[in-house]
Write a structure and sequence with these properties.
elongated, 3-stranded mixed beta sheet, alpha+beta
């Protein structure tokens, strides 16, 4: 078994962990999986995005389904979309010798009801950015596109870099400890589970137990 210091972490799992450590454990340790409406909507959107083809975007070009990695943090994943925009001050030099700025765009089906930015979504994009910074040798930008309102929200990574970096690296360390122990965390008090696709796996619903019916069943045998 790999030690918690060297165990690779999937970027998608960071989002699950931030939403609920128990969900993370059920997925990564137990291998549990279940779908609900939100998961299906997300999958359909990502199927359309992940063509793997190069396309045009605004005044530059974009690529989808790019494999990502950061060897220092030992994290990996797959991008939804990466946009390369011509920029004379850009930090990335393309194969054509031109300078570009790089933006990671993550597609989500529904905009959060309580604000423009969902922290788990922002953390996922920031982790992608950390991979892109190493892969492209520049400071990448991040954005989330919410399909239901057809709106793109730019992430405040330039002004809040230190905050997000400390958060992401701290989460990764906690995740590796849980994986190394192989123990699924308990359900957090006050955890909202109604939107989780693993609700019935995490909290199995049992039929009401009836002493009378149980005795009748035993006498009938």
């Amino acid at each position: 078994m790999k030690s918690c210091e060297t165990r690779q972490i999937n970027i998608r799992a960071i989002q699950h962990f931030l939403y609920c450590p128990r969900r993370f454990g059920l997925l990564e340790i137990n291998g549990d999986w279940a779908e609900n409406v939100a998961v299906v909507k997300g999958n359909l959107i990502h199927e359309r995005v992940h063509s793997g083809e190069k396309g045009s975007c605004r005044n530059g070009y974009s690529v989808t389904a790019v494999s990502l990695f950061n060897d220092e943090l030992d994290i990996y994943g797959v991008s939804d979309c990466i946009e390369f925009s011509p920029d004379k001050n850009g930090g990335y030099t393309g194969e054509d010798g031109e300078k570009y700025s790089v933006t990671f765009v993550e597609y989500k089906p529904t905009r959060p009801k309580d604000g423009e930015i969902s922290l788990p979504d922002a953390v996922q994009v920031f982790a992608q950015k950390l991979c892109g910074d190493k892969m492209f040798g520049c400071s990448c930008k991040g954005a989330i596109y919410y399909a239901d309102v057809r709106k793109r929200i730019m992430m405040p990574f330039d002004s809040e870099y230190d905050r997000y970096y400390e958060l992401v690296t701290g989460l990764i360390s906690q995740m590796r400890v849980i994986l190394d122990r192989g123990e699924i965390p308990p359900r957090k008090k006050g955890q909202k589970c109604s939107g989780c696709s693993l609700e019935n796996v995490c909290i199995p619903k049992c039929d009401n137990f009836s002493v009378r019916e149980n005795i009748r069943s035993m006498l009938a045998e």
